[in-house]
Amino acid sequence: MSEMLLVLLAGVAAGALNSIGGGGTFVALPALVAVGLPPVAANASSTVALVPGAAAGAWVYRRELTPVGGTSTTALTAISVIGGGLGAGLLLALPAASFDAAVPWLLAFATVILAFGRRVSRALSTALGRSVGMSSRAVLIGQFLLAVYGGYFGGAVGIMMLALWSIGLGLDTAVSNPMRVAQVAAVYLSATALFLIASDALNAPLLLATMLAGAVAGGFAGAHFARRLPARLLRSVVLTTAVTMTVLYFLHG
Description:
This protein is an all-alpha fold.
């Protein structure tokens, strides 16, 4: 019962974090490892469990989605689905040790970009005498790479999306948050389809169902809560989450 409670609470926290600012994987994955799942199976199971919560958050935000630069939402979502599936395939086919070593540095980079991305974008615009903006093709290439990462590991992929859009397009974190939730859901959806077929995610159905139920509740509640936060406070929550995860992951490594 204590293990089930841990997994349930981790699911609620992960679902809420993903809706508010990202980072749910860093709650869900350690909880599943703590109750005995191997790391790769835990990673796959956490992705599967977080899909419904991400989808619930995306549903809450469905009327607040804003395009990312000149890229259509349909094209961005399609790229997220394709990249997420490819990343999941790589997780099942390749050893994770080398990539795990790079994750803290990727998180640190994303955190720095989140903290200073908009300032850098404005400074570049002033220096160049024109607006800084990625082309639609560049946005899609960046999104594809992030989606592959999201399907492979998933940790802070939403934060990295916000970082990319912030530095590349000067987009505000609060305005971009609904699209982040939707794209993370798209990445997780395609990864989940592969994990259910080819991974050990279904070997512990009770743990999976418990975390899934918690993530749905957390994702739905978290999205409603995030919509009521002032833009500055939401940016602070996202940045605080990013800093905390980065520090903890460095300490864990």
